[in-house]
Amino acid sequence: MLEFERLIDHHCHGVMPGTLSRAQLEAIISEGHRPVPGCTNFDKPVGMVLRRYCAPVLGLEPHASPEDYMARRTELGGEEASRRLLRASGLTGVLIDTGHRADDILDVPQMADYSGAYAREVVRIEAVMETAARTAGSGEQLLSAFEALLEERSADAIALKSIVAYRTTFDIDQSAPTRAEAAAAGDAWLKSNAASGWRRLEDATLIRHALYVALDICQQRRFPLQLHVGVGDRDVNMPKCDPTVFIPFVLQAEAKDVPLALLHCYPFIQESTWMAEVFSNVYYDIGFTLNFTGPEARKIMEQAMGMGPFFKHLYSSDAFGLAELFYLGRIQFQRTLGAVLSDWIAAGDCTLKDADRIVAMITHGNTERIYRL
Ligand SMILES: [Zn+2]
């Protein structure tokens, strides 16, 4: 029997406090439009596995109807439901990205309390630049404030993260801008914010500056930079979010010996595992993807196990907002990795001892090593 004893979720977000309405819960398991009349977001792979696996944690039969599930969740109350699901996830540690809707979700200490796992913060660099912009009067002030704030936020963090793929795609000039270029881009962004209302950071020059400041901090602190790859909501320009497009930057990070953790990777899982094979600093996970492919997640795990070194593969749920997604992340990961490795053992491709060693690397060994936990 393969052991999945110590599991560290290296990329996830906080859960929403309070008792969620059905509409709120369904919105969290959707990356896009509303379902057609007569259908709901439970009519998807993630909805199927949610009813199958989460219902028993709340004391229902597997495959409880969405109505019964929501009634039971409401009866327990959101906090109790979240605590039960998070405890059942059996996590040792959670590394939490606080850069998305931070005011709507539990903070890092609260996540530790709910889950019983240790919790550490991952700081999103674009969010820090946006915070700095709220008070900066000039491009130069923006850069100084950003650098000071990122340094300060990094002191207690376990890693930094960038969503450059979302904001500009990977298809940008990937060299470091000069300080004058970055300051001029900052002036232009602040001016347009003042003239026509607040706009989120989408300027490639400023994000490049932020990426190189982040690389230096990661090098000093000897911790990773996480990069969002591929799947997300419709803001993603998918063909340009192929991580192979970002290889010039990957090489800069490799020269500084900074690990890059590619997150989600769908639909670029083969590209990501190849990059993990050829670049010493590239790591990858299939978080989010395992949950949203539901009963077919095993095919995704087969791809993830198809080329990348076992010592480069990381575990994440990419859960956001909903404790169910933490629990499903664990279930989907354990059953799909277990199935792949059991087949390898049955075929004589590896021994049980080999398989246990692989599980230990992916569940916690790799994460503990690169995040220096
Ligand atoms: Zn995420």
Bound small molecules, by name, code or SMILES, are: zinc ion
Gyration radius, in Å:
21 Å
**Tally of individual domains:** 1
Unreliable residue runs: none
Secondary-structure blueprint of this entry?
Elements: E1 8-12, H1 22-28, H2 45-57, H3 66-76, H4 78-88, E2 93-97, H5 108-115, E3 118-124, H6 125-133, H7 139-155, E4 157-162, H8 164-167, H9 179-196, H10 204-221, E5 225-229, H11 247-255, E6 260-264, H12 269-278, E7 282-284, H13 289-292, H14 297-304, H15 323-346, H16 352-370
Parallel strand pairs: 1-2, 2-3, 3-4, 4-5, 5-6, 6-7
Helix pairs in contact: 2-15, 4-15, 6-7, 7-9, 7-10, 9-10, 14-15
Bound molecules: zinc ion (ZN).
Characterization of the model:
- With 373 residues, the chain is an alpha/beta fold.
- The chain has one domain: Alpha-Beta Barrel (TIM Barrel).
- It is built from 16 helices and 7 strands.
- It has a 7-stranded parallel β-sheet with strand order 1-2-3-4-5-6-7.
- The chain is globular, with a radius of gyration of 21 Å.
- The site of zinc ion has 5 residues, from loops.
Keywords:
single chain, 373 residues, alpha/beta, TIM Barrel, seven-stranded parallel sheet, 16 helices, 7 strands, binds zinc ion
Please sum up the structure shown.
By secondary structure, the chain is of the alpha/beta class. The chain has helices spanning 22-28, 45-57, 66-76, 78-88, 108-115, 125-133, 139-155, 164-167, 179-196, 204-221, 247-255, 269-278, 289-292, 297-304, 323-346, 352-370, and strands at 8-12, 93-97, 118-124, 157-162, 225-229, 260-264, 282-284. The chain is built from 16 helices and seven strands.
